[in-house]
């Protein structure tokens, strides 16, 4: 066997151990050739890859043709603000299901999410989130969590996962071993969770340990847990991935890293080096979501590590076997979607069930003069879709009221006292994930606060609040149903501080 042949073989082994992303809404010839030449069989698609159902189904079909029968085509379709396909029935966020506290409802929502995803050509969903959000300052989890109680959050998440699996879409629980109690977003820096092991086992680890016999895949967290490994984030920690998850918990599903392009990893370790270290630590697949150049760097580094023996060939084969078993159990086959209308009704009902009140919010009477105070822009945190535009929210409330809209660019500079004292009922609508600063906390006094994204914003403003855990169209419809007296806010926010 020639050295060139060896190199080709090692690259094709490396290609089976990575998941990539690519720009555009079509599979161009160069990307298709890259997939085929390197035996890549895993791709994650994002909002920028999507136009509508027809285009997306064609793209995923082209990917299956290029990658073969063991294709793994993935999506982040959690619900709430973290969805990529925005035109299918809109699922509520995990915390809305936590507020509804109904495992059968969670199962039904998980099944509906999977039906829509599979109709678009996906067979792997990076959901549900098992992080327990007990940190109000967490900048990236919040309503993506089912709650703060390990037992109940796990029961709801496992019901959601069972629903997905019943419809043929594999779940990947995340972010092992827990991203809930951080105040840093690992997309931007490297967080640490400085807790004793006993506390981690009782809280953060509990949902993942319970899920280990059931979850076909787990995604790692780019977080340092000094009680286990003071030197390496979980993604690159053999103590965490191999000793804890594989040996102590006997987990035999697929371990995939979170995106290795995130600053917590790429900026500190370099993508190629980090990929090799993650596979050496026990990961089965590296999520190489950067550019074509960083994907090439990742491929080359893994191929070289296999060639040198740094990555043991027997371990490589065991990783490939787990990935093959996942693809076999959840084959990538599109289906029709006759349940679309029924699933829209289901999702609308689920959003309504999760609607929660804090304080004693009162409804302005129909036709009342209302002042809406809202951000002038819609922003994404890089993980979520952007919030609802101010004009769209004004139009929604305009179905019931005479709405005067006032927008702000910077909450800390907005002068609440400058609002006219003209008798209008004042509604603050929070349409971003950002928490409020000290000036807003001290001076803003709306009659009603609509917390349409991050529920913790309701703790910032001294006013009665209505919490939706998201801003999709059925969430706004639920708000109007409550305002119109058709609906009570019967949900109970499942995290501390909202009693």
What's this entry about, in short?
The protein is of the alpha/beta class and 499 residues long.
Which properties best describe this structure?
499 residues; 17 helices; 17 strands; alpha/beta; five-stranded parallel sheet
Q: Could you give the order of strands across the largest sheet?
A: 12-17-16-15-13-14
Which oligomeric state applies?
Answer: single chain
Helix vs. strand class: alpha/beta
Give the CA-CA distance, first to last residue: 69 Å
In terms of DSSP E residues, the strand content is 5-15%
**How many distinct beta strands?**
17
Task: Please provide a written account of the structure.
It is built from 17 helices and 17 strands. It is α/β, with parallel strands linked by helices and 499 residues long. The strands form four sheets. Strands 12-17-16-15-13-14 form a six-stranded mixed sheet, covered by helices on one side. It has a five-stranded parallel sheet with strand order 1-11-10-7-6. α6 links the parallel β4 (124-125) and β5 (170-171). α5 runs parallel beside α6 (150-166) and α5 runs antiparallel to α14. The longest helix is centred in the N-terminal third of the chain and has 17 residues, at 103-119. It starts with a helix and ends in a 16-residue tail after the last helix.
